[in-house]
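User: Okay, second chain of the day. Same drill as before: sequence in, structure tokens out.
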Amino acid sequence: MAYNSTTWTTGVSTTSVSSSNLTLYSVFGIGEIDSAGYLADTHYPLPFTTNLVGASGTQDNITFGTGTDPATTFTTAAGYTTDASLLVPMIWYLPDNIYIDGVTSIEGASTSNGDTTRMHLFSYTFTSGSTSALTSGTLLAYNSDVTNAGNEQAYLSSWTIDSASVVSGKVILCFFRSDSVNSDYSLNVTIKYHLT
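Assistant: Same drill. Structure tokens below.
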């Protein structure tokens, strides 16, 4: 097999590769959030790919409000209990324009009495070197509420895409919210996209 800037050659066939037909995937997720420090109806960002935060005791210090959707801005200025070291593992930076083709998630609870949960995918304008690191938040996708019956089953959700095109230089964050804190959760969110 050989590759040049436009084609893959396999010996029996050649397939054109371009940004519009190359499917890519990115993942947010975490293994069993410890809900002890979490608050009900509060949006918490999930780590991007392998950027798992060392201790969920510190991860619960980074929140994006209690509204229907996560906050559209975020600052690490005075009055917040978080810092840049907690924000960075949650960020997916886009060096290219992308188009989101689909989002799916799998979640599983740790106790017999679960919660109603929901998740959101947002893009933000990122300002390097500023305490107001994230501005101009835009809802990209969300799932319908999942009513967890407890730890005996995991749930798969296909998300609704609200805004599929995201320009280069933006950052993407994924959020989890539950209506109560009966259970801890493991979460896996997969974004299918292509470059534009």
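The first helix runs from residue 56 to 59.

User: Thanks, on to the next one.
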